[in-house]
Amino acid sequence: MPSEMFWFKRIRQISPRQIYHLENAKSQTPQELFDKTHYDLLQKSEKWVKENAGVYMVISTLIASLMFTAAFTVPGGFNSDTGLPVLIHNKYLLPYFRLVSLSLFFSLATLATSLYTHCIHFQQEDFYFSLPLKIFLSSSNLFCCVISTVLAYGNARRLQPLPVTNIYVHYVFEAIRFFALLLALLVYVDVILPVCRFLKKLLFHSLSSHN
Question: Is 93 a domain residue?
């Protein structure tokens, strides 16, 4: 739908102003004809955006719940004598809490943008710039959230190594973490690439029209 609106607006811009309000044989202006022929596409686009926002909300809510618990749970517990964390001198403790905080922040940002996208009253003009930008922000926030979560998991394993005698098990965990990052990257690129192309095209067109 955004691409269709882009080309319609571009053709409208380069067309003589006096013909824009002319009607065809069915007494339809160009805008009315566009609205009628793209009504089904508008409904499908609205359904896709709402379903996408719903999935983002579910994932971000789950991650936010886990990260909120992790933010108030100190790995290794506290020293009964000093009251300080047992692993306070471990170099991975501070990066762990930073990654947990980042993941919590990005998950809440994803939840907020997705909830706003899901609840707005969709208008045709929203698909031209507003909704693509919201999808870009939601997808980027969710991607950063997943990456921070996976990296926090890696730091947690360094803080409290599993008592595994077989070294190959450690390599299995590292491979799982690597493929999780790779899968998140591939999904992000698949979702965000068309949106980035459209926003780039829209930006170049806006700059060229001003020049």
Answer: yes
Helix %, strand %, coil % of the chain (to 5): 75, 0, 20
Per-residue pLDDT of the chain (211 residues; tens, 9 = 90+): 666 776 667 777 667 777 777 766 777 777 677 777 777 877 787 888 888 888 889 989 998 998 888 888 877 777 777 777 777 777 878 888 888 899 999 999 999 888 888 887 777 777 777 788 888 888 888 888 888 888 888 888 777 666 655 667 667 777 887 888 888 888 888 777 777 777 777 677 666 665 5
Q: For residue 154, how many other CB atoms are within 10 A of its CB?
A: 19
Alpha carbon distance 57, 114 (integer Å)? 6
Rounded to two decimals, the pTM is 0.75
Structure-block tokens of residue 146: 């997943």
In whole angstroms, what is the distance from residue 183 CA to residue 31 CA? 42
Flag whether 35 is in a domain: no
Q: Is residue 102 in some structural domain?
A: yes
Assess if residue 157 is contained within a domain: yes
Count of domains forming the chain: 1
Instruction: Quote the CA–CA distance of 63 and 143 in Å, as a whole number.
Output: 12
